[in-house]
What does this fold into?
Amino acid sequence: MAEKQGVKKNSAHKEAALIEAILYLETDPMDFNVLSRISGLSRDTVKKAVDNLEEKYKNGDSGVELSRIGGGLMLSPKQEYWETLKPHYGKKSEIRFSRAALETLSIIAYSQPVTRSEIESIRGVQAVDTVIRLLLEKSLIREMGKKDVPGKPAQYGTTREFLRFFRLESIADLPKLNESEAARFEQER
It folds into this structure.
């Protein structure tokens, strides 16, 4: 019996190691279905392997952790080490935002789907086209369809890249707004 448990434990370690290797090689967050397909393991086995990895990284002296981003998983540096690593490694993915870009991105994140004219109304300024174009180029927002009103304006929302950039599992993980902050993002629909 003890021998059987040892084999089972060894198998669980190998499965976790396989999932860890896949996550190491991938640059995008991977969901359980993709991990299952790549590894050849069942979805339940992948979930158990991920649980083992989370426990390993939580209890160990590892410099990495499993991050849940946009419904997927990826290996990333632990936040406590990122400030030390950022000067060397952060430049590649660092995007500098103007105040206008941050305001526009916030409006889109909290009010999505939202049109250009709605963004202008909430910001209280005209001409957000350049900022929207920049955010589209950076893949932080995308066109989500057309609003069913005269002129059929494009509606914008955030992308998986937005979630990845801000290390969010879902849009629900955005910081909660107080009443006065939330009122700023309200619009007539």
